Request: fold
Amino acid sequence: MEHWTRAEARAWMRAPAATDDKYARGVVGLVTGSHDYPGAAVLGVEAAHRAGAGMVRHVGPRRVGDLVLARRPETVVQAGRVQAWVLGSGTDPAGRSDALAAVLQEALDEGVPAVVDAGALDLAGTGDGARLLTPHAGELRALLASLGEDGLTRGDVEADPERWARLAATRTGATVLLKGARTLVTDGARVVLVAAPTHWLATAGTGDVLAGVAGAMLAAHADAIARDAGIVVDLGATAAWIHGAAGERASGGGPLVALEVAEQVADVVAGLLA
Ligand SMILES: NC(=O)C1=CN([C@@H]2O[C@H](COP(=O)(O)OP(=O)(O)OC[C@H]3O[C@@H](n4cnc5c(N)ncnc54)[C@H](O)[C@@H]3O)[C@@H](O)[C@H]2O)[C@@H](O)CC1
Ligand SMILES: Nc1ncnc2c1ncn2[C@@H]1O[C@H](COP(=O)(O)OP(=O)(O)O)[C@@H](O)[C@H]1O
Reply:
């Protein structure tokens, strides 16, 4: 098992050059948030901006888009070309509308790299392109059940996270980032461990922030992923490391809120580039 530290994370960061424009830095598109969970969209969008995306698009219900814009007017709330997608945070597959299903499927079929989170995880096996699945243990249990692993409990996954994350990666052909105090990233062959520096991260919305950071990482490296999809493991681990470091800064030893974690991501990136 590989252990991911600051040194490994640094290798995947690049500051913009004079020749870069917003597109060269990577456009992230998010299909996230819903009437029930609008905040997840705001958190993921903020994180994608702070992690260095050249542009952030958000596709979702009008009310969700309005909340995203109220927080981050830089966001483009229209569909368009992207270098990477973030799909599913703040959505519920049980109540998925036909319209949302169509938008998600179209994104998955585009062939660009995608972070597949929360309410889109049941679609993990569909479409083309590199995939980074970001379940917590309960979501991984549900994903494995849909793949035929009946009778598995969340506790089973927590007792042997490496085994179950590897199995999900092998069965789906995706890279799996299993969230927790110790985050595992695996493509079925490599297994990378990212230890969180603070347990105050165990609070609502921090997973939505992680998805936004991961989306920015995939977008920034979309061309390299097309040449070698194996680097999605490195990019997912780097996103988890940045997320942990941002959580440590947001906490300062005490409680944190997810939006502050997203805000701290920019300083963590600056520290890695210094
Ligand atoms: N601000 C927001 O809009 C947020 C939206 N979120 C979204 O919310 C959706 C659901 O995510 P979750 O991971 O919460 O849902 P899950 O359905 O994956 O997990 C909920 C689990 O927690 C258990 N549970 C619920 N309340 C509990 C309690 N009081 N004590 C003990 N166990 C309890 C349930 O039995 C269930 O097993 C996702 O789409 C996610 O992205 C979350 O990220 C939280 C923040
Ligand atoms: N005990 C813990 N210590 C450190 N980090 C944790 C702990 N529990 C969860 N996390 C991290 O917090 C985030 C929670 O994500 P998730 O479960 O999707 O929550 P939410 O859906 O509320 O955003 C993940 O990045 C996970 O790795």
In short: The domain at 2-12+98-265 is CATH 3.40.1190.20 (UDP-N-acetylmuramoyl-L-alanine:D-glutamate ligase).
